[in-house]
């Protein structure tokens, strides 16, 4: 019974956090200076909250740390999807491009974003490593490493990837995604993540209620990240999980996407 509450909190945080990012990236048509300030301030608040929540091993502090990690990661994701921090170019992948060149070009589309993730991640690890309550740290690491795993799987090849929510401003990124059968890397990444999730949840069962929450939160979050990976291998319309609540009116979306795409084409 003690695992039900943290499990429900993680599922709610994952669903609301993902939906909020999907919704906001569609609402924010043109990034501006005010957005930079808001995201920066929100990220700082989330980082400070992570630090404060790591001082005590109480379940409430674990929940606060988890939510702070989700908010911080949401700020990082929005900085990319709104076009604030992307890469050194916005060119689609050339035809008949070699794997090595395709990787370099794909990395170039988001290199500054990846550098920012490394910097923020480094700060989080430096501040929270060895803390009394690492729930926030573990949750952030799950979001970080599983996102990189998803990106690599998209590059190597997956049979299914839904682009319904992908903003038009980043349409060129589609050309770097390889639609193909799943590769050995997919099996390795999913099996490794499953093993870590098992270890986290199995160890949580042997601890008292207060300490078990610290491991249950990132453990369940990792299971959800594995589920997201499986969406890339199975013909399942995962966006339906958020469409009813977070979807914007389709006519507005088409009008804004067409305008954004036209602006992108007109730029060199």
Explained architecture:
The chain is mainly alpha-helical and 268 residues long. The protein has one domain. The chain is 70% helix and 0% strand. Helix 1 runs parallel beside helix 3, helix 1 packs across helix 9 and helix 5 runs antiparallel to helix 6.
Fold blueprint:
Elements (H helix, E strand, L loop, with lengths): L3 H24 L5 H21 L5 H23 L17 H10 L2 H18 L6 H22 L27 H22 L3 H23 L8 H7 L3 H17 L2
What is the structural class?
A: mainly alpha
Terminal residue distance? 58 Å
Which strand-content bin applies to the residues? under 5%
Provide mean pLDDT, rounded. 86
Helix-strand string: HHHHHHHHHH
Helical fraction equals: 55-70%
Q: Supply the number of helical segments.
A: 10
* Count of distinct strands: 0
Low-confidence parts, pLDDT < 50 over ≥5 residues? Answer: 250-268
Largest sheet: none
Q: Rg to the nearest angstrom?
A: 19 Å
- The dominant shape is globular
Q: How many separate structural domains?
A: 1
Summarize this structure as a short list of keywords or feature phrases.
268 residues; mainly alpha; globular; disordered C terminus
């Amino acid at each position: 019974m003690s695992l039900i509450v943290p499990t429900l909190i993680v599922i709610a945080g994952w669903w609301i956090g993902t939906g909020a990012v999907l919704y906001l990236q569609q609402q924010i048509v043109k990034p501006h200076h005010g957005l930079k300030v808001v995201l920066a301030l929100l990220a700082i608040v989330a980082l400070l909250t992570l630090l404060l929540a790591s001082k005590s091993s109480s379940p409430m502090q674990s929940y606060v740390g988890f939510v702070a990690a989700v908010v911080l990661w949401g700020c990082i994701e929005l900085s990319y999807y709104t076009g604030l921090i992307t890469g050194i170019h916005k060119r689609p992948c050339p035809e008949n491009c070699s794997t090595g060149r395709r990787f370099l070009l794909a990395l170039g589309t988001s290199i500054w974003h990846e550098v920012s993730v490394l910097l923020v991640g480094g700060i989080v690890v430096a501040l929270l490593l060895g803390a009394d309550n690492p729930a926030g740290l573990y949750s952030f690491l799950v979001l970080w490493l599983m996102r990189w795993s998803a990106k690599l799987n998209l590059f190597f090849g997956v049979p299914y990837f839904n682009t319904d929510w992908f903003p038009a401003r980043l349409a060129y990124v589609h050309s770097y995604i390889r639609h193909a059968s799943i590769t050995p890397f997919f099996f390795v990444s999913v099996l490794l993540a499953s093993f870590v999730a098992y270890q986290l949840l199995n160890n949580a069962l042997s601890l008292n209620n207060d300490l078990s929450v610290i491991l249950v939160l990132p453990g369940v979050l990792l299971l959800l990240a594995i589920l997201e990976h499986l969406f890339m291998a199975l013909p399942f319309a995962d966006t339906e999980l958020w469409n009813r609540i977070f979807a914007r009116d389709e006519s507005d979306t088409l009008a804004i996407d067409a305008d954004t795409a036209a602006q992108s084409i007109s730029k060199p």
